[in-house]
Amino acid sequence: MIHGKHKTSDRYSLAYLKRLIEKIDPDYVITEIPPDRLADAATGFANDGVVTEERVARFPEYVDVLFPLTKTLDFKIIPAAAWTAPMADYRRDALKRIENDPTRAKDWRDYRAALEAMNQAIGDASDDPMFIHSAEYDEITKQGLGPYATLFAEDLGRGDWESINKAHYALISAALDHHQYEHARILIMFGAGHKYWFLGQLNLRNDINLIDPEDATVEDGASAWKLDAYFEDTPDMEAIKALLADHGGLGDGVVEELPDIDWVAHALEGLGVVRCGRFVLYGVHDADKLPNEEGDIPIRIDANQAFGTGHHPTTAGCLTLLDRFAGWAPKSIFDLGCGSAVLAIAAAKLWDRHILASDIDEKSVEIAIENAAHNNVASKVTALAAAGFDHPDIAAAAPFDFVFANILAGPLAELAPAMADHIVKNGRVMLAGLMAEQETKVTAAYEAAGFRQINRLDHETWPVLLFVKT
């Protein structure tokens, strides 16, 4: 987490931060950079070796450490800051009005007193990496920012503490969802004050493993290393001690006996059976737990590298909305951005139709084909690699009566005109992957392309929309 003293601190310096990121060796770094600023920052760095983009240049952690590390480490920077310049200006002006308003004098005093108490409680540990990443620090910042969050919420509009954290986290969550099945190592690099709020949300997820701060800090010398070794039988500790002694200060080692459990089953415990109306999704490890109720449509989707096991609200929402279709069975169906092909498989089983499915990721296409075979619909599901509608087989199969598109809000909006070109009059398109705050933009794009919304599955974060082409 960024703490503001990296340039002056001896304990948590820019050099320390560099070693820390090198130790973590992330696949992705989610940053407090606005999505509309990253391209300019990256282009400037690529061309001149310097980050000059105004917003990003404020952070030496990014300018002097993160961007230079892109030359030696293989990771992708993901922008996730929801702040905009108008929001910042509005917040600054609103706080100035409150400060100068005699009727708000008590609110301002309480706010300043809470900040002062927070700073005193943190003291000179504000640049201690272990303290910054501790539960004690989180509680102090939560209490210290409490008055700011509650007293000024109405004054600050979309820039109030709760709203901006929700907006930041929505972008973070979308990034985590997008890379959910890659087994990726992801570093979130935000201002330290946001950490307690983000952790409250991250701890609700069952698809990520949070790294212990002690395992993510670095020290000079041998104390920075930890070696884990696994043995089927009790090891010869004297031989191990002798071996460790030859490598300078690694300690004597500790023996820990692991419980005798099925570790594969243990890892899969979080992926249980999911019911979405008639559709019952399960992994092969849960085949003996199916409810087997009359009318059920079982779908086997094993956890893999393709999105779509039914545990995410977008997939579950699409299946729930699909379950509401009874008498009407479309003739030509396309699953765009199929991932695991769970929607294509569901449609093939529900309607007994041939389904064309595509994904931009070739690995997902391989998994989609495997899943169709697992569900005995291999002859009814054709999966291919394509971006959008750009494939001769898609063009040949169009126009479609029904299209699934469970992807992301940006591509959904961009594809609206092409969607209209590839779907019949009165054809349906089911859209998912957009977040609630992105719904207006996506809806406007499809209405402009000649669609009318006819149904919506409500969800606090991930709504599912159904449109008809007029």
TrEMBL record:
<keyword id="KW-0687">Ribonucleoprotein</keyword>
<dbReference type="GO" id="GO:0008168">
    <property type="term" value="F:methyltransferase activity"/>
</dbReference>
<dbReference type="InterPro" id="IPR050078">
    <property type="entry name" value="Ribosomal_L11_MeTrfase_PrmA"/>
</dbReference>
<dbReference type="GO" id="GO:0032259">
    <property type="term" value="P:methylation"/>
</dbReference>
<keyword id="KW-0963">Cytoplasm</keyword>
<keyword id="KW-0808">Transferase</keyword>
<dbReference type="InterPro" id="IPR004498">
    <property type="entry name" value="Ribosomal_PrmA_MeTrfase"/>
</dbReference>
<comment type="similarity">
    <text>Belongs to the methyltransferase superfamily. ETFBKMT family.</text>
</comment>
<dbReference type="InterPro" id="IPR029063">
    <property type="entry name" value="SAM-dependent_MTases_sf"/>
</dbReference>
<keyword id="KW-0949">S-adenosyl-L-methionine</keyword>
<comment type="similarity">
    <text>Belongs to the methyltransferase superfamily. PrmA family.</text>
</comment>
<dbReference type="GO" id="GO:0005840">
    <property type="term" value="C:ribosome"/>
</dbReference>
<keyword id="KW-0489">Methyltransferase</keyword>
<protein>
    <recommendedName>
        <fullName>ETFB lysine methyltransferase</fullName>
    </recommendedName>
</protein>
<keyword id="KW-0689">Ribosomal protein</keyword>
<dbReference type="Pfam" id="PF06325">
    <property type="entry name" value="PrmA"/>
</dbReference>
